[in-house]
Amino acid sequence: MKKVIFIAALGIFATACSNESEWDATGTFEATEVVVSAKCSGEIKSFNVEEGQEVEADAQLGYLDMTQLELQKSQFDANQANLDASKANLDANKENLTANQDNLTSSQSGLDATNAQFDANKDAMNENKSQLNISKRQIDANQNSSNSRILDNERQVASIKQQIENLKKEKARFTAMLKDNAASQKQVDDINYQILVLEKQLAATQEQLTSSNQSVGKQNDGFKAQKDGVDAQMRGVDAQMRGVDAQKRGVNAQKSGLDAQKRGLDAQKRGIDAQKRGIDAQKRGIDAQRAIVDNQIQNSIITSPVNGTILTKYAQRGEFATTGKPLFKVADMSTVYLRAYFTSDQLADIKLGQQVKVIADFGGGKTREYTGKVSWISSESEFTPKTIQTKDTRANLVYAVKIAVRNDGYLKLGLSGNVKLK
Fold it and tell me: How far apart are CA 156 and CA 96, in angstroms?
């Protein structure tokens, strides 16, 4: 957000007043303007903005294509549900292990049946381990896909840099022509403005590319957390399988075998706890990825940061917006500011918060009177602009002052106004 001075005709009052005592300074009205740009890239699916339209801060005015983001979010939900189901199964398995432990303590008669159950459990663990390997390969594939989205900053901004280089060549050519009076100063100034706009666009694009690559890095951190979780589950499965083997040896060793089986069941419980920790790590990774997608979805929604009026519309529905592309310009017109210039001897009569009389000049002898409040006083002097009159026309140095005026709907940007201090 920045203050942009609208100087269509900066305070032209050379002949407006015949008596200097009728005013103390003159100036023009300006407002706080904001150029709203796209926060990400995508097709503009909805864009309910028209010039002159009144908008509220944070109200949705449109959105970019979010199809892929919604699909990613659905996939995260499915993965999260699968992990919750796996965790519920682990809880059930842990309860079963406790029951098996009680059975081993109560009787040796169930040793053979328990031994058979151990074999079945071992087969299930092998199957679980196979599924974990599949999950790990899928995570690797997702990570490779994420890495493929890392953008080459230089290639992305090469076009903008080339445009800047071309404009600089044009500037040199027109500057040479200007010396021969074959071109105008305005043409050179226009090229300078275009170069400035492109340089700002270049900086915004580079910043967004860096942010995008950082987001991919965070996604990779999430994938690593998932892989760590899978490894923890696999270690848990291996621990369970070792526990089962220990229990089988315990069955064959009778009483000593019972004790070994109990220890094996305890090892399985610890393995289940390890798997549950792995699942929790995976869920945290998914939550991190979901947060990134939610942020991208939020960035796809077009809003105005302030209450105000749409001044300029730069894009249309159906166009492809790139990161940093201007979409519209909005200004808060509820309070406008008269920028006037005062001589140093007048500063003694001016202070912040002071109420002054402001007369808006609509031309043709039509004026309206308002009460304004001094909101800003420049701390540095400057040479009097040629188009600005002060009460003391001999002054070479003046100070800029902004006067806030509540807009009743008549005040427009660039309109001239007079200031009366007393």
Answer: 57
What are the tens digits of pLDDT across the range 350-406? 999 999 999 999 988 899 999 999 999 998 888 766 556 556 555 578 899 999 999
pLDDT tens, position by position, 267-276:
988 999 998 8
Mention every residue, 6+ apart, whose C-beta is less than 8 A from residue 300.
39, 40, 42, 63, 64, 65, 66, 69
Residue that has been written with the tokens 């002097």 in this structure: 381
What type of residue sits at position 310?
A: I
Task: Kindly give, in sequence order, each residue whose CB lies less than 8 Å from that of residue 179, ignoring residues fewer than 6 positions away.
Answer: none
Hey, how many other C-beta atoms are within 10 angstroms of the C-beta on 415? 21
Structure tokens at 97: 């292990």
Residue 406 φ/ψ, nearest 5 degrees: -70, 125
- Structural domains of the chain, ranges and CATH numbers in brackets: 2-59+311-420 (2.40.30.170), 68-150+210-298 (1.10.287)
DSSP 66-105: -HHHHHHHHHHHHHHHHHHHHHHHHHHHHHHHHHHHHHHH
Query: 15-24, 170-179, 194-203: which has the minimum mean pLDDT?
Result: 15-24
